[in-house]
Amino acid sequence: VWNKLLSHIASRLDTGLAISSPLCSWPQWRVLAGRPCLKNWSRNIHNIDLPLHRSLQNLAQKYGNIFTLWLGSRRVVIISSQTLVQQCLSKHDIVLSNRARFLTGKHLFYNYSSLLSAPHGDYSRNIRRVITNDVLSTERLKSFAEMRRKETLKFITKLAKDTCEGFTCVELRTRLTNMTFEIMTRMIVGDANEMKKFKDMIDEMMPLLGNNMGDFVPLIRLFDFGGLVKRMKDVAKRGNSFMQGIIDGIRSEEHGG
């Protein structure tokens, strides 16, 4: 039953149809045509409370494993069934692989041309092929094995020092995240002198990656409240300059200059 249901969802998403009107149960269907009226811009935002995962759980218990919400001008399909989610990420991943066009994709990810924001198609498949066969190839990953070993040893040593006085509770999530980030930074930048610049730039970029009201209420984009777009453009400009410097340095080394 679930397989047939998901196939029905996939076919409707592929042909421009979608699950029924906001906050209705999954067996009902209709075509959602046109854009939301301006007077109804908030739509179901008032149905969402914090913490978000509990709010969505409550809605799923009330309306079923599949339901839709209007968040401003965007229609969002919520799936709370593990079985369906697994199939969305495997069997029907092509149908559901396109990404929403947010401001971050335009200003931080080269006008929706990066792997994180590119629409599904020949271009995105080619990017994945390059990353799989070159950037993250087996040989390339092997070349960083010693660096990963050193970072892991440094992590364990620091963890031992912090707990040398006896048994204590340790919050590992942040520590492991930091270690992973250290490894990724060294793989990308390489030069220890440039690592701090790169980290500072990433720290400045991370808060900008979250969704903002302009992504859901397009009218707000005209005013750029809080200077969000301006900050995105500034970070993107400095990021381009930084990465171009790394590329030029690598090219110079390859040519013996």
UniProtKB/TrEMBL annotation:
Entries under InterPro entries matching the protein: Cyt_P450, Cyt_P450_E_grp-I, Cyt_P450_sf
Q: Which Pfam families match?
A: p450
- What's in the keyword line of the UniProt record? Heme, Iron, Metal-binding, Monooxygenase, Oxidoreductase
A GO MF term? iron ion binding
Cofactors demanded by this protein: heme
- Alphabetized SUPFAM superfamilies for the sequence: Cytochrome P450
Q: Which GO terms describe its biological process?
A: secondary metabolite biosynthetic process
Q: Which family does it belong to?
A: Belongs to the cytochrome P450 family.
Identify this protein by name. Isoflavone 2'-hydroxylase-like protein
